[in-house]
Amino acid sequence: MPILDITPLGSARSGTAGAVAAIVDYLTNSAKRALGIDGAVGYFADRAERPGIWRGRGVNGEQLKGEVTPEQLTRLLLGGHPNSGVALVSSIGSSGRAARDRSTPSTATSKEFLDVTQTAERLGVDPSYVKRVLLATERHERDPSNQRPPLQPLHGVRDGNNRWRVEPSEVERFLRARSEPKVVVAYDATFKWEKSISVAWVQADPDTRRIIEHALNEGVRTGIAYLETQGLEVRAGERRVAADGMWAVQYRHTSNRNLEPQLHDHVVIANIAADPKGNTRTIAGRALFTHATGHLAGQAVRHFLAEQLGYEWGPVRNGTCDLAHIHPTPLSAISTRSAEVQELATSYGTDSQQARRIAALTTRKRKQEPTDPDALEKRWSETLSYWGFTPEHERDLHGRARPVPFRDTDTAKLHAFLDSPTGITKQSALFDRNDVVRAVIACDGQHGGAARLTADQVERETTRWLASEAVVRLDHHDTRTPRYTTASMLQLETDVIAAYRHGINALPDGVNQSGIRTEQALWQRATGHTLGADQTAFVQQLAGSHDRFALGVGPAGTGKTASLAVACRAWESAGYQPLGTTVTGAAADVLADTCGIETRTVASLITELNAGHNPLGPNTVLIVAEASTLSNRDHHQLVRAVTAAGARMRAIGDPAQHGAVDAGGLWSQLLDTHQDRVAHLHENRRQATAPMRDVRHAGDLLRNGHGRDAITLLADTTRLTTAGTPAD
To answer: Quick one: pLDDT at residue 354?
Structure first.
């Protein structure tokens, strides 16, 4: 799970004051409870334990320090100066300003009710959307305990023919509520530290606890500083420009909603910043989400604890890692909250950050009654001791590893790793500064131990490598987040492109057209199937080509494998030996069964090439199926082997399907470069029947980037089922 999660805080315009009050109460009153103020005992689960602390460089150079009062936080979230209250930005936010003058014309009609189509026209949406909201509202009204309400209900009635009817006044109400601008008053940057740190903190003595908490503060300070440098922007007209700094407030939490130990920090970033001219504006929030802040903050924490306490760390994975020498059992014993979220996220069929966020909200418990903090911490300690992690075990963690100086020889090794096939371009040929920061941290924590690099050193090594000859900047215009590639990757791509170009009409022969027609007729007689006109042209172009390298495109369901089966028979009859290769073993099995040829995975073929044996010969036709999944490096090795053997290669796939797991995209680039030489299949044969016409149309929409329209079409034809819960 990533260390950092950023969430916009706000509400509809009319509810801004209430939203601000709720945020302030959550963050500040709970801190008073923790301190025993106003006669309260204990604190609520997942609540701050002490007053907030100012973070950030400040706005227009005005940095604030020390503790934050509730009054200061309230003024700030309402768009004013935290001390004077003078308005700095409109309290309704940028989205509110854009919609401030939006008018809602009357739904003038002589009819008592509107049907679904009329309602959709008035709202400016698709009728299928109206149906879904009406149905969701009806379901919730029937059974509020089991059916979640829609974000904005729309009430209607059904007539005797079971058709929906909506009152004009209800459409007016829905339109006003739906059009009300949403206001972002702040961004909640939540630093969720590794569970093993919380476990060590529970069993640590007071001095060690202070060191751990200081380390987390260093992590927050480092993360906010990086955000201010790399991810803080305001919108100036149509452009986004760098902002000078932020006002942010840090609140430390020690437990989660299940009353389990979980150190984490909420940093509330006010939606106020200044442009280079000193004008205060709201933040262009998108830049906050594209950064390596969590990775860098985690590195700062690890280095500090390794240096101060000698803590040893496991390997870094996705920017996070746990303390070494803590058995998984005590970690699991006090991690039921994480288990709940992970279990529900997995049931969605994905493990994405968005799925975990939805799962966290779905499983979130209501706040519990105040709990005595001393009794709670005693219970934590007893639970951990029972499962095998005692205070003595925490003391045994001390002094196991200390960071050693990072020297010039280490820099050379780091740069070599970044430029290697397993380095920065392993999964993408393009990268930005944030990607390099992540890769440097991953390299430092590849095998665990002490975190050698400080956060400042990570940034310095990032800057040094980006300025080296190994890196090529691709964006030559002024931009805050330029893109790069490596010189080695650029050379690799250049070599492949040159090989395709030099391979045009490089062969003296292809399969003659009469031979292709003969084999097609034999195949059709043997199978009882008939190739369509586009399939016939596809086979003739690929088999008859005099190019060493040829490309073919066939969307799913257009009959690629049947076409290839005929092409293979034509090649064999002309004395050639087809050899199939695919990235996945399952695809290799399908290609072998359908075409009746030897087929191997790309990995096994490249392993043989790397061992010094080229299984290709002058009469080999290498058929690369599902070529969109081919990585650039694998593509390069296959092209070199084909050229060296005097063979020919046919790369066939669908650019709209899955891309390569490792750095890819070269095959799609070649399609653009050689558009006039690409063989195409057009007709969808998989959903050829009339009842499947809408499915075929939806697939075409999705393929051309119109996902919303595809879903709407399927919903209109009742081919989508909306589930109330993941279990439905």
So the answer is: 53
Look at residues 328, 333, 427, 449 and name the one whose alpha carbon lies nearest to residue 384: 333
Tell me the two tokens of residue 704: 């051309």
91 vs 558: CA distance, rounded Å: 55
- Pick the range with the lowest mean pLDDT from 73-77, 232-236, 703-707: 703-707
Tokens of 541: 């172009």
Buried b (16+ CB within 10 A) or exposed e, 312-346: bbbebeebbbbbbebeeebbebbbebbebbbebbe
**Euclidean distance between CA atoms 602 and 623, whole angstroms:** 11
Q: What secondary structure letter does DSSP report for 29?
A: I
Give the pLDDT of residue 643. 97
For the record, the structure tokens of 344 come out as: 């529900």
Q: Mean pLDDT over all residues of the chain?
A: 84
Task: Quick: pLDDT tens for 610-643.
Answer: 999 999 999 999 999 999 999 999 999 999 999 9
- 615, 573, 582, 604 alpha-carbon torsion, rounded to 10°: -20
Whole-number CA gyration radius for the chain:
31
Predicted confidence band of residue 557 (pLDDT cuts 50, 70, 90):
confident
Measured in degrees and rounded to the nearest 5, phi and psi for residue 581 equal -150, 140
For range 567-587, the mean pLDDT: 95
Write out the H or E segment, with its range, that includes residue 298: helix 293-309
SS3 339: helix
SS3 207: helix
Query: CA dist 680 to 151, 322, 551, 552, 715, Å?
Result: 45, 51, 9, 6, 31
At 16, the pLDDT band (50, 70, 90 cuts) reads confident
Cβ 670 vs Cβ 694: under 8 Å? no
If one compares 656 and 568, the residue with the highest pLDDT of the two is 568
Question: Running DSSP on this structure, what letter comes out for residue 424?
Answer: T
Phi, psi at 62, each rounded to 5° = -90, 95
Q: What is the DSSP string of 443-511?
A: HHTSS-BS--S-HHHHHHHHHHHHTSTTEEE---S--SS--EEEHHHHHHHHHHHHHHHHTTT-SS---
